[in-house]
Amino acid sequence: MTELSDPFLALSARTGRFSFGTPRAFTLAADGERLLFLRSTGSQDPVERLWLLDLTTRQEHLAADPTVLLPGRTGELAALPVLERRLRERVRLWAPGIGSFAATPDCATAVFALDGRLFRADTATGECAELPAAGPVFDPRPSADGSRTAYVADGVLHVTGLDGPLSPPDGALWGVAEFAAAEELGRHRGHWWSPDGSAVLAARVDEADLPLRHFADPTRPELPAESFAYPQAGGPNADVQLWVLALDGRRTALDWDAERYPYVCAAGWEGDGEILLTVADRLQQAVLLLSADPATGKTVELSRTTDEFWVDDLPGTPARLDGGGLLTSADTPDGRARAIALDGRILTGERLQVRRVVGRLRGRLLIETTDGDPADQHVHLLDPADGTLQRLTEGPGVHSALAAADTLLLVSATPDGVQRRILREESEFTLPDLAEPLPYRVVPQLARVTELGLPTSVVYPRGHLSRQRLPVLLDVYGGPGAQAISADPRRWQLRQWWADQGFAVVTTDNRGTPFVSPAFAKAVFRRFSQVALDDQVAALHALAERHPDLDLDRVAVRGWSYGGYFAALAVLRRPDVFHAASAGAPPTDFRHYDTAYTERYLGLPQDNPDGYQADCLIPDAPRLTRPLLLIHGLADDNVHPSHTLLLSQALHEAGRPHSVLPLPGVSHLTAGGAHERIVSAELAFLQGALS
Question: Are 510 and 536 in contact (CB under 8 A)?
């Protein structure tokens, strides 16, 4: 593949967007003595290996190296089993080495798959062995003592050492997370060992009623099209059941009202005699925590969280604490803050937006929050008895945590870079990071604007002199569940590059985006487009009053996924404000997007036809008067390329000139340098459109 001519884009492509060599996928041993993680050997090495760090001696060693286990392997996604390839797309992971692993609680044993082959590592010695498997292996997981491994092959659940499969080969998928769970609900696994290793809790996923989506590579016409089941808004979902599969052959189905609560958001064993599962109704306005008896399958409701709009996922909740108390998410009565409650009593007030309950540390809850500026994330210890808070992190940045026993891992992404500190007893040390240093130290000009307090930023070219008027590039996402204005320095590298190409780069988090307040996030209930468009235009005008160098006669907009939707929306409906757009992978008609995401915000299409029609871009095609570039990967199984092609077809039939960049073999993830080549094409298009 030809090297990119731009130095920044070329370096970004070679270093995996400055991620190669970064430690990730941390697993702490239950006693806090050892840490497993993945990392490549350097900033231009994409192959991730498994490492063990002894937290007492502070010595790390290589526990598994895929280049040794399978010499000559390419690590290409095409070599992976279909289930693993799709899961990696769901979690936005591209790593040609060990993409994921699972370990025993003591971290002594880890298992993983390479190109569909099953491996087990003795992490202390670094000795690895390939285990015989029934077929291409997906999502292997060891029992607590490491003696057996459960894995999925061809949609059937197997356990090493057993004669025959653990689940019946009945045409359903066993032991996997269905599309809706993995893409939208935060559940990426479908099987869980019992603590004593005598049984596996497994999801049974029947996709027979779902429509099929097809993909073909037009550059390889000799190959057949690939297809997969897709839950389209308003249509059927996968039928998901949970079964306890004992190694001795007994099978017990868990019994809950799955017709009313079809989504399994989380599941796991609380002990050998109890399973906890979290289920939600189709519109996600009610979330239940259930206790299940693995012997009988009977379930009992422990807690219920409801919301007239939707219940936002708060990772780590609902949960039962050691003393039996039930931890749930809750909004403060004024709607200003997302809080947590213990047995219905709110523990955090309007000052904090709780983002995640990490776990327990020294008898207190470890939580991640927004404490003031929504661009920041901090780590607190919360005493559930009296609500006392202790903040563990300082300064602007995005801080996250992991804990086991008395060991705490703090990951801090601040303007000075990213640091991973391990704190235990009275000692502290930093985990080595081999990634390429970030090229830019970006100082965005942040502000909250309009009466809504919209978070915004402006990034100028380095060395910019005031009174030099600049074309504006609105770099946007704007959709639910994702925040663009963040203190993480990795978020600003590409924006600084765009600025250095001669733009004032503006970014705004409109209503509907998270972490400002529940009321702010839920303002898009039953209608996406108008709120986002109104807020982005209002913020742009407010910023122009503060920044006279913004030339509002030359405004371009770019985005990907929901951001691509907004970019196309902007030039179609507000050509008086936006003069050119690059729209990447846009969901142009949400009636063709997935159930769990779309229905959470817009409801069912049959119940809200006006809202779906108002958010659809296809009828706007005759209104196009501005340059528009549509970009789509033809292997995108999240936003199917038909979204872009339907809009392009409508534009063509309306006689509206536009540009389309189809990308064979490229998925929603845009891995392997595709992202940088897309950006290069966008730059050429937008510079020409605004000249």
Answer: yes
If we measure between CA atoms, which residue out of 97, 107, 101, 98 comes closest to residue 35? 107
- Alpha-carbon distance of 287 to 662, in angstroms, equals 40
Quote the CA–CA distance of 444 and 582 in Å, as a whole number.
23
Three-state SS at 148: coil
Q: What is the largest CA-CA distance in the chain?
A: 77
Helix residue spans in 147-218 (DSSP H) = 179-180
The whole-angstrom separation of Cα 126 and Cα 105 is 17
140 near 129, Cβ under 8 Å? no
Peptide bond into 605 cis (omega under 30): no
Beta-carbon neighbour count of residue 589 at 10 Å?
20
- Residues 114/73, Cβ–Cβ less than 8 Å: yes
Residue among 236, 209, 225, 238 nearest 641 (CA): 225
Q: What is the pLDDT of residue 426?
A: 79
Q: Return the SS3 of 444.
A: coil
Question: Nearest 5°: CA angle at 452, between 615 and 612?
Answer: 10
Query: In 3-state terms, what secondary structure has residue 82?
Result: helix
- Does residue 143 contact residue 110 with C-beta atoms inside 8 Å? no
Q: Which CATH fold would you assign to the domain 445-690? A: Rossmann fold (3.40.50)
Q: What are phi and psi of 658, to 5 degrees?
A: -160, 170
462 closest CA partner among 492, 426, 496, 488: 496
For residues 314 and 325, give the distance between their C-alpha atoms in angstroms, rounded to a whole number: 17
Counting other chains too, the contacts that 635-638 makes at CB distance below 8 Å and 24 or more residues apart are 635/215, 635/217, 635/664, 635/665, 635/666, 635/667, 636/585, 636/666, 636/667, 636/668, 637/86, 637/89, 637/213, 637/215, 637/228, 637/230, 637/667, 637/668, 638/89, 638/183, 638/561, 638/585, 638/667, 638/668
Taking the C-alpha atoms of residue 534 and residue 64, their distance in angstroms, rounded to an integer, is: 52
Residues with Cβ within 8 Å of 377's Cβ and at least 6 positions away in sequence, in order, are 355, 368, 369, 370, 397, 398, 399, 400, 487
CA 88 → CA 212, 233, 310, distances in Å? Answer: 20, 23, 27
Give pLDDT tens digits for 112-154: 999 999 999 999 999 999 999 999 999 999 999 999 999 999 9
Confidence of residue 369 (pLDDT cuts 50, 70, 90): very high
* Burial profile 405-415: b = 16 or more Cβ within 10 angstroms, e = fewer: eebbbbbbbbe
- Residues 671-687 have pLDDT tens digits of 999 999 999 999 999 99
- Nearest-10 crossing angle of helices 674-690, 7-14: 160
Tokens 């936003």 label which residue? Answer: 639
